[in-house]
Amino acid sequence: YFGHSAGQSFIRGQRIRNLPRCAVALLMGCSSGSLDRKKEYDPDGYVLNYLLGGSSTVVATLWDVTDKSLDKLTK
Question: Which residue ranges does the record assign to the Peptidase C50 domain (predicted)?
């Protein structure tokens, strides 16, 4: 996925988690790989859906980046 965030508007996390197989995922959007900490609860983030869905590897950005920076990185 290339765009804003991690593609939540295109595919629900529950669907990703329930895939029979999940390929390596490239999530090239602002903070697509960041995890939110909720005090004593486990961290949560959209990237976890891919890992729980069986993806062996997820490449994602941990902070906000510009479109030009992502274009340069992915080239």
Answer: 1-41
